Amino acid sequence: MTVVPVYLDYAATTPLDARVAARMREVQTTAYFNPASNHAAGRQSAAVVLHAARQLGALLNVEPATLIWTSGATESNNLAILGVAKQRAHRGKHLITMRTEHKAVVDVFRALEKQGFDVTWLPPDREGRVSLATVESALRDDTQLVSIMHINNETGVVQDIEGIGKLCRPRGIIFHVDGAQSVGKVPLDLGSLPIDMMSMTAHKFYGPKGIGALFLADGTPLEPQMFGGGQQRRLRPGTLPVDLIAGFGEAAAAAAQTMDDDLAKLVALKNQLWVGIRDIDGVQLNSPETGGYPGILNVGVADIEGESLLLALEPLCVATGSACNSQSQEPSYVLRALGRTDPEAQSAIRFSLGRQSQQAEIDYAISSYRAAVEKLRALAPGAAV
Amino acid sequence: MTVVPVYLDYAATTPLDARVAARMREVQTTAYFNPASNHAAGRQSAAVVLHAARQLGALLNVEPATLIWTSGATESNNLAILGVAKQRAHRGKHLITMRTEHKAVVDVFRALEKQGFDVTWLPPDREGRVSLATVESALRDDTQLVSIMHINNETGVVQDIEGIGKLCRPRGIIFHVDGAQSVGKVPLDLGSLPIDMMSMTAHKFYGPKGIGALFLADGTPLEPQMFGGGQQRRLRPGTLPVDLIAGFGEAAAAAAQTMDDDLAKLVALKNQLWVGIRDIDGVQLNSPETGGYPGILNVGVADIEGESLLLALEPLCVATGSACNSQSQEPSYVLRALGRTDPEAQSAIRFSLGRQSQQAEIDYAISSYRAAVEKLRALAPGAAV
Amino acid sequence: MIVDPYHATVRAYFKNPEHAGEVRNGAIGYFADQGMRIRLSAEVASGDLKRLRFLAWGCPHVIAACEAFCRQFEGRAASDLEDFETGPIMQDLAVPIEKAGRILVLEDTVRSLGQAIRDLTMTPQE
Amino acid sequence: MIVDPYHATVRAYFKNPEHAGEVRNGAIGYFADQGMRIRLSAEVASGDLKRLRFLAWGCPHVIAACEAFCRQFEGRAASDLEDFETGPIMQDLAVPIEKAGRILVLEDTVRSLGQAIRDLTMTPQE
Ligand SMILES: Cc1ncc(COP(=O)(O)O)c(C=O)c1O
Ligand SMILES: Cc1ncc(COP(=O)(O)O)c(C=O)c1O
Fold it and tell me: Could you tell me the CATH number of the domain that includes residue A141?
């Protein structure tokens, strides 16, 4: 009973790029060895890992040695934030982040708060952006770490990471960026940006699931969060999953090649979608008017119950809130931070588009959305009384 | 320039079983979605995850809900040991482990020692076993956790985990077992064994790399070590890698089916290997005489330099020490704990056999080993003076 | 990870709520709570619920529960409404326990409908 | 992760140590340290190193360094041994810095060989 859904949830995860899948299969049969093994086979796998690090490094314009492999952006965020906070705790316990970060950042800071760290939670404006003035006024003498995401997973709003980095660097404050939604999707030159650490994950841009990385600029102080074995300069032990790493590298190479085309296509499709639904009575744009990442369109609609809306949209696959939170029916904390009311936030749907998205799918999404809203409004007592 | 090596390093990692690879490809194309997504596609992936948990649960005779997915045994060990130690720190800070554990256990306890925990490091006997008397005499009123591995990765010695568990359970001490080298290779009934936690990793038994699990018996106290999102009852967040999990499940199903045949074959091959080299002058068995896991044969040889031996054996792929340590030329701490001298330990070679191993490969290994020892002895001044 | 949060019956009723709508000039029950709003309407003849219709604003379980209620009681005696219990609906629709409160909104609406019917039949108009 | 711990020259010399062995009745240099043992032997005629052979117990870099030394000095004047330096061998074989101490064992053996040759040629036997 396989459902053939229309999938507009690329921000949750993406399918494997064909080149990535092919590369992984090749590695699985010819170089499935342990890269830490000191024999011919192991060295073959080590060379595969190095090649992948070069591919990812080329995408981001950084040295391969600055990349630490992890199991995903969640682990990268944990390693970066806990690792710096604890390493620097003797110097000061003030940390800064934003209210609209992903749970994999929010919950890490919450855990640090319980351990006695002092966290400033910066508010976004109504479009979701944090201003440089807001960041600057939060900086203190004892601030050790600022963590601000690049592209928001719910709304697609893009933060000014260059500007924020420029505030941090001269003060010796470590700047971490959750790049889970931006690496491989938008141009990023980590070689010239004032960023000390960036979290990423392959499955958000057509790479395999279960593999991520942390970019760690030379000299950034970091305490490991896992122990055992000498792999990866003791910063992250465990047998390296050589096929996943190879797939990650190949996804980076593919991204470098198709990024411009991908972005142009997304701009057109997102526009098609928004034009197709914006005239519905009570529709509200939760993504920024301009300058947002074109793969994400988040819209609310007045007086519609979100869970029923999602079910009425089936088999269209879209998200309420972020994928990681969609088990709960809670209205999105991200949208509430943007000033949306609970009912407004609760009706929000995130459409996220990707490399395989088609005009016809957008047409389908538009008519599904219109029909679902109409159906639920017809069902509602308020409308019929 | 692809080397075609003779691979006898299955304890480091294994190739993908064909059924596993097929299952993963299927999932990658039909159910690559995020299992946390609340839509038809996500539910399809969630069902795949549940099916895999049932397959692994069936292998181990436990409920699917007792299995937490991780990135591998290293992470499982870290989660289990740090998670219990910290959760129980208010009750007591005494922990017990063994000197011959894998680095992914040793280094976790070392980190805990630095944080003020009191760790007892149990010694093995000359064959590598820890006696129940030794364990029992180490137990104290404030002991919170005992962690003893099942099958040793360097020598194949098997610990009496049932006996140790029986000492811990009535005392309310949590018992963790590193099962990285045993799950999927030898029969294990976690439903009846007195074990609270067991670490495992798929790539040691023909499953994918980058996916592991922690068996957590109902009611075992555990503090999460990563934060973010509500996945896996908040014990381990992050997007679940559904294809890796499906592959893990399939590897478990395949293991359940072929385990008896695999073991019988390994017994015969290991015997062939040992018979073929045991008459070499100065050869010393580092694996136990009897009762060891038949996939691992560890042998030393008098007055041979280990690094040169390994290179002389090429293109035979075998290990010195454990795969994770093979970058360092240090003599194995495991073998030293067994009473071997530094030079004895330094000459040790671990042959580890697996499902694809052939009699002809063992023949090749025997003649390689004999030739390498002969060559190095001819080169040595001691022999020629 | 949710294998399926909705019982097949919930899906069927939500997809095709045959009793959605309103009986013109019928007896009306209405209740709102916890952000949910339900309106039931009934055509009553000779003490029987000839036609039952609902309107609802709420999650799929609430909508399905309304449909289930209408299917169950349409055609029966209006006095049977007094026997209405949420337990069987909770079970038939596998409503998760944390949503029990929402189903109680239906109970209150049913009570309101029963009262409306009694009010109607009390009046000497008939 | 080791892409290759051995330079191709190390691999070649280790695999095929053409100068392994011993010159019968030759001058002998010997040194042992850090668990390494090296024995060099030379056939000296008219002040030249006619034949140079080595025996060694050690890691591949030590064995390759011995072979490299023999290749370099065989045929040259025995007095050239005084010019022996470990630097070029360290570089040619890409010996990792942590193994530098082992290569110094070779230096000591070469010095020991030079001394043995001088001892031999000093004697009036010739
Ligand atoms: C912004 C952001 N950060 C972190 C993550 C976590 O990534 P992963 O699930 O690969 O660990 C995600 C995706 O879920 C994300 O969108
Ligand atoms: C006994 C033992 N424990 C733990 C591990 C770590 O497993 P992984 O590398 O999959 O994290 C290994 C293998 O390297 C092992 O042999």
Answer: 3.40.640.10
pLDDT at residue A212 above 90?
A: yes
Using alpha carbons, list the distances in angstroms from residue A237 to A70, A225, B300.
9, 10, 28
Whether residue C126 lies inside any domain: the answer is no
For chain A, the domain total comes to 2
Candidate from B161, B248, B293, B324 with most ligand 2 atoms within 8 A of CB, to mutate: B324
Question: The domain containing residue A53 runs over which residues?
Answer: 18-255
What is the pLDDT, as a whole number, of residue C126?
45
Q: Say if CB B217 and CB B196 are below 8 A apart.
A: yes
> What would the two tokens of residue A155 be?
């709304």
The complex scores an ipTM of 0.94
Determine contact, residues C99/C113, Cβ cutoff 8 Å. no
The conformational region for residue B116 under phi > 0 = left, psi -120 to 50 = alpha, else beta, is left
> Hey, are the CB atoms on B311 and D14 less than 8 Å from each other?
yes
Residue C60 lies in a domain: yes
Return the sign of the alpha-carbon dihedral for residues A240, A246, A248, A253. Answer: positive
Q: Looking at the structure, do residues A84 and A125 belong to the same domain, yes or no? A: yes
Alpha-carbon span A336 to A338, nearest angstrom: 5
Cα–Cα distance, A32 to A46 (Å, whole number): 10
Q: For residue D108, give its domain range.
A: 8-121
A229, A255, A281: which is the final residue of a domain? A255
Residue C3 — very low, low, confident or very high, per pLDDT cuts 50/70/90? confident
Closest-CA distance, A5 to chain C, in angstroms, reads 15
CA of A104 to the centre of ligand 1 (A): 7
pLDDT 10s digits, B13-37: 999 999 999 999 999 999 999 999 9
Using CB atoms within 10 Å of the CB of residue A122, give its burial: 0 to 12 exposed, 13 to 18 middle, 19+ buried: buried
**Rounded to the nearest whole angstrom, what is the distance from the C-alpha of residue A200 to the centroid of ligand 1?**
8
Question: How far is ligand 2, taken at its centre, from the CA of residue A37, in Å?
Answer: 13
Do the domain assignments include residue D80? Answer: yes
Q: B71 is written with which tokens?
A: 């990135």
Q: Does C1 touch chain B (CB under 8 A)?
A: yes
With CB atoms and an 8 Å threshold, state whether B240 touches C1.
yes
Q: At A118, is the secondary structure helix, strand, or coil?
A: strand
Cβ–Cβ contact D97 with A under 8 A: no
- On whether both A126 and A187 belong to a single domain, the answer is yes
Question: Measured between beta carbons, which residues in chain D are less than 8 angstroms from residue B312?
Answer: 14
Residue C24 to residues A371, A384, C42, C67, Cα–Cα distance (Å): 25, 11, 9, 18
Report the alpha-carbon distance of residue B255 to residue B238 in Å, rounded: 27
Phi, psi of A290 (to 5 degrees): -135, 155
Nearest-5° angle of CA B109, CA B115, CA B121?
A: 30
For strands B197-201 and B118-122, give the pairing: unpaired
In chain D, the number of structural domains is: 1
Q: Which pLDDT score is estimated for B302? A: 94
Q: In whole angstroms, how far apart are CA A100 and each of A93, A106, A126, A157, A354?
A: 21, 8, 12, 10, 23
Q: How far is B380 from chain D (nearest CA, A)?
A: 5
